[in-house]
Amino acid sequence: PDEQLDLDDGRWEDIHVVTGALKLFLRELPEPLVPFSHFDKFIAAIKIQDPSLRGRCIRDLVLSLPPAHHDTMKVLFRHLCRVVEHKEENRMSVQSMAIVFGPTLLRPASEEASMAMHMVFQNQVVEHILNHYGYIFPD
């Protein structure tokens, strides 16, 4: 249904409502922003010890995403980078952002026992993309 949203409506003034809606939307997607087929590749890439190789690998993985995923990721991360620029006021550092969005944007197809182990790496991938946005998404 084409539901019209009035963003001037008072209930949207609380930033937690808006961010909660965004996280819920991303979590409810049939497939996460990083497709299941790419999950293990991103986890493997973030574990690469050599920083320049790791950086190239993650950039190439982002480039290999289907266009809708890639383009959405570009817009979302551009916005998240802008939020991080105001971390003094909003207390949303790169690390905080990664904790909030890591498990939502990257998740394995099946929730198995190694979930807690994955979470560290999921967060590191989001941190990496935030910290290297300009390299990963050159305009």
UniProtKB/TrEMBL annotation:
The keyword Endoplasmic reticulum does not apply. Transmembrane segments: none annotated. Signal peptide: none annotated. This is RHG27 protein. GO terms for molecular function: GTPase activator activity. The keyword Disulfide bond does not apply. InterPro entries: Rho-GAP, Rho_GTPase_activation_prot, RhoGAP_dom. Keywords: GTPase activation. One of its GO terms (biological process) is signal transduction. GO terms for cellular component: cytoplasm. Residues 1-137 form the Rho-GAP domain.
